[in-house]
Structures are given as C-alpha cells and as structure tokens.
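fyi for ur records
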Amino acid sequence: STPNHESTTPFTPANPSAPHLRDLLAAERHSAQAAMLCSPCSNLNYGLGGLCNAVRAEKLYVSRTNIRVRSLLSSFPATHAAQQCDDRLLLQAVRGEKVPRPPTWMMRQAGRYMAAYRKLAEKYPSFRKRSETTDLIVEISLQPWKAFRPDGVIIFSDILTPLPAIGIDFEIDENKGPLIDSPLRLEEDLRSLHKINLEKVQFVGEALHLLRKEVGTGGTILGFVGAPWTLAAYIVEGGTTRTYKIIKTMCYQSPGLLHALLTHLALEIADYVIFQVKSGAQCVQIFDSWGGQLTPDQWTSWSKPYIQKETGVDVIGLDWTVDMADGRKRLNESIAVQGNVDPALLFAPLSAISEEIQSVVKKAGSRRHILNLGHGVLIGTPEESVAHFFETARTLSYDSIFAEQVTALSAAPK
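which gave:
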C-alpha cells in the first residue's frame, strides 16, 4: 500500500472544547462495533474511580489504581440488534453476558516464540517490512490462530506504526529497538506534527479487513494503539530508556510543550482507533507501557487525562503481581478484567499451568473476565505450553468450577 503525500496541515494545540473520542464514537454508534482494553497493570494506587467516560452506554472506564495498568480495552457499541446476533465469546464476556467459560487470547501471541514466525522473519528480516506489509501482517496474525485457535486474534503491528502518519519517523533496530532520529524536545519541534494521514496506515486497515473476513465468527479481531504518555516517552527520549530522565524533566521544565504533544497524540490516535474499528477491529487495546514509570500523582496529570481524551475502556488488564481476587474487589462491577497468568509460568510443567489457570479463573468469577497472560508471551516460550494453555482454557466450565466451590463451602466445618 503506497501512501499518498502526507498532509502538511500544521499542528496547533488542541482547542479545549474540541470533542473527545466518546463524542466522535457516538456518531459511529450505528456503523462500528468494538471494545476498548487497557493493558496489564499492577500497583492499584491510581484513583480508579475518576476515569469514567462515555462510549458504550455512556460508560467507558480507564484505570490505574494500585494495579499497574499497562493496557486497556474498550468496546464500541453497534446497534442493539447487531449486539444480539453477535455470538463471539470475547464480546459477550465484555458486555457482561452469561458465557460458558472465559474467552482467552495472549498478548504477543504472534511472535518469535513460534517457529513459523522465525522462519518468516528469516525471509523478511526487517520488522517494519513484516509489520507494514498487508499480506505479511495477515499471515503472521493468523499463525497462532491456526495453531491454537484462541478466541481473540490481534493484528500484528506496533504501537509506533502511526507515528510517521503524524510527522514522526522511526526505525527499528533489531538489537536496540525503536530509534527516533529527531526527538521532539523544543517548542519549534511541534511544527513537524500534523493531523494523521490515514493513507499512510492503509496497510493496517486492509489487514484488519482481511482478518475479519478470514476469521469470521471463529474469533474476535483486536486492534491496538499506544497511550499518549507511552508514545510521548518514545518521541521525547528518542527510543527506549531505563530512566525516562528527559521526558520527566520536561514535565517540570517545559510542561506546556509536553501538554501540547500529549493533546495532539490523544486526538490523532483517537482518529486511528476509529479507523481501526471501521476497518474491522471489534476490540482495541490501549498499551500504556510506560505509565508504570510515573508516580500516582504524575500519572493523574500526564497519562490519565489523555487516555480520557483518546477514549476510555471497558476492560482493565491486570498483570501477575496483582491478586486477581483483590483486583476484582477494587474495580467497579461493570468493568471487565483481563489476565493475569504470569508469562514465565509457561516454562513450568503443564500441570502447573493448568492449576494456575484454574486459580485465576476462580478468583476472577464467572462474569466479565478474559483469560490472558499478565504480559506478552516471552521469547523462548515452548509452543507446547501455549497450546496447553489454550486447550485447558477450552475445557473450562463455569458451571463445573463454581459448583465445586459451592460444594466445598457447604462441606466445610461449621
């Protein structure tokens, strides 16, 4: 997909009265359907309640309360009739409908742990080639679906993929990760930003359309985006970092500059979310990968409000450092949870994997839970273990699990 020339519309700080994504999505209510997820979190310290937004029935949720939120997920409503006829397990769980078992998929379920992916990567060594070529995106995204039949199929992409479409180019070094040659650190650097040119990400839309067609009713198609703070961290630092010194310094020395950057990212990524939904995504996950580098007060100032501008969420992802039962207690009952098996457990004996899955599911309860890892699949994970994870998940039965719990409680000594 060859992009047309990029837009030259100059960037200006957003009007405070500009519509939020929830307002834009209201206009899409009858033509698009999807859900919004928040990536795994720990440190449930971060004022969960104040992030109610509107999208689905005027209620989207985003949180970072004592959980370390690394991702979020939201669903964009279709008409009532469309919801009634959609029997995809994952979407039913997000909506809080009764389901026989928890739906399941894995973050990074397509990737280097799979022999099929490694073989393809040898033929196409450039990550950007693999993640920006429609046919390759579709092939890689479908590799785990064909092998393991998860309930969710996430597009193979990267959170930085839309950056060139708003005026920020980057490269991927196989050893160093993302590299941005011209980091944004001065007021004049804002001039390079412009409205998102969706022609430059047509390969994403084409891939989502093809995935939706290929998977059909056999699974839910997921897109994803980066949260504004996480994207800004890459843009300001110029790549990955362990200290976040430059962007954290900017919070205090140039707050106006950082607020302008975050506002622009929120508005343009919101358009990118809508683009993904229109192209076929039924759920969109938001990754706030570097939100955990902020204190609770910093997160409230520098991440939370821009996720609210971007959208809001229906599902909160928990990582494995949070007890699922405790996370459930802290979250509003109308919010679904995702997670939270430790990805390192996939190196353990298969029996240990089965036991942990059972434990997580029991703690999560029988409504609004998506079974997943607490983070992405690790490199070197045995494919046999991933297959066992999904096979175990498919054999689960809420009726059986919670009947056993009732029996155990009734048999306990008075």
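Confidence is low (pLDDT under 50) at residues 1-32, 44-70, 77-85. thats all i got for now
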